[in-house]
Automatic annotation (TrEMBL):
<dbReference type="GO" id="GO:0043022">
    <property type="term" value="F:ribosome binding"/>
</dbReference>
<dbReference type="InterPro" id="IPR015946">
    <property type="entry name" value="KH_dom-like_a/b"/>
</dbReference>
<keyword id="KW-0690">Ribosome biogenesis</keyword>
<keyword id="KW-0342">GTP-binding</keyword>
<keyword id="KW-0677">Repeat</keyword>
<protein>
    <submittedName>
        <fullName>Ribosome-associated GTPase EngA</fullName>
    </submittedName>
</protein>
<dbReference type="InterPro" id="IPR027417">
    <property type="entry name" value="P-loop_NTPase"/>
</dbReference>
<dbReference type="InterPro" id="IPR031166">
    <property type="entry name" value="G_ENGA"/>
</dbReference>
<dbReference type="GO" id="GO:0042254">
    <property type="term" value="P:ribosome biogenesis"/>
</dbReference>
<feature type="domain" description="EngA-type G">
    <location>
        <begin position="1"/>
        <end position="149"/>
    </location>
</feature>
<dbReference type="InterPro" id="IPR006073">
    <property type="entry name" value="GTP-bd"/>
</dbReference>
<dbReference type="Pfam" id="PF14714">
    <property type="entry name" value="KH_dom-like"/>
</dbReference>
<dbReference type="Pfam" id="PF01926">
    <property type="entry name" value="MMR_HSR1"/>
</dbReference>
<dbReference type="GO" id="GO:0005525">
    <property type="term" value="F:GTP binding"/>
</dbReference>
<dbReference type="InterPro" id="IPR032859">
    <property type="entry name" value="KH_dom-like"/>
</dbReference>
<keyword id="KW-0547">Nucleotide-binding</keyword>
<comment type="similarity">
    <text>Belongs to the TRAFAC class TrmE-Era-EngA-EngB-Septin-like GTPase superfamily. EngA (Der) GTPase family.</text>
</comment>
Length: 236
């Protein structure tokens, strides 16, 4: 299932099969959330709930951002909903054909500033109204779904983490330096990794490991989760 989330009217989601790239895709168009957060009340509040429900039922979400306007808090909120739900993600920059060079310059700066944490999401510049470049969605969707379903063999994962930790170990805090003892991928959809460590692993170091995992194994278009389990010392 694909969720196509667009700011617009407050109608109910539309569920339809669309053929793209020789395949049938089920789109749920959840158009209905206005772009200003303070307007999210009444019908807009229920539209937001419907969007959340659609995201949770989806496998990959296509979030359309109107390039004629600044990236808003509402855009970021919807994107975060997708990440929090653990769904694959493709970002579509809509009305690209209507944008002039000045707006393009400022949009790129906004993307760098506001969406830096989502640099892993495939980007498609298109026009939903005219259909221009809509066909480019298919490769992005397929990459995102493949990443969402990727499993890294345990041996390869631990060999890689061993190299990373040896080159850049966890910082020493209060005279202690936690060690990563073992790692495993607990599940897919999205990929979830569990690190077994001798002590608490700081959030900054977890983000560093997540970044290196992406560099090594791709995971383009999917959130990944890295959690830590501390193994207590056995009492003698």
């Amino acid at each position: 299932m694909v969720v196509d989330n667009v700011a617009g009217t407050t109608r109910d989601p539309v569920d339809e099969l669309i053929e793209l790239g020789g395949k049938q895709w089920r789109f749920v168009d959840t158009a209905g959330i206005r772009r200003r957060v303070h307007q999210t009340r009444g019908a807009d509040f229920y539209a937001s709930l419907r969007t959340q429900a659609a995201i949770e039922k989806a496998e990959v979400a296509v979030v359309l951002i109107d390039v004629e306007e600044r990236i808003t808090e509402q855009d970021i909120r919807v994107l975060q909903q997708v990440v929090d739900a653990g769904r694959a993600l493709v970002i579509g920059y809509n009305k690209w054909d209507l944008m002039d060079e000045e707006r393009r310059y400022y949009l790129e700066r906004e993307i760098e500033r506001e969406l830096v944490q989502l640099s892993w999401a495939p980007r498609v510049n298109l026009s939903a109204k005219t259909g221009r470049h809509v066909d480019r969605l298919v490769p992005a969707l397929e990459v995102a779904l493949d990443s969402w379903d990727t499993r890294v063999p345990t041996g390869r994962l631990n060999a890689f983490l061993g190299e990373i930790v040896a080159a850049q170990p966890h910082p020493v805090r209060s005279g202690k330096q936690p060690r990563i003892l073992f790692a495993t991928q607990a599940s897919t959809r999205p990929p979830r990794f569990v690190l077994f460590a001798s002590g608490f692993i700081e959030a900054g170091y977890r983000r560093f490991l997540e970044r290196r995992l992406r560099e090594e194994f791709g995971f383009e278009g999917t959130p990944i989760e890295v959690s830590v389990r501390v193994r207590e010392k056995r009492r003698r």
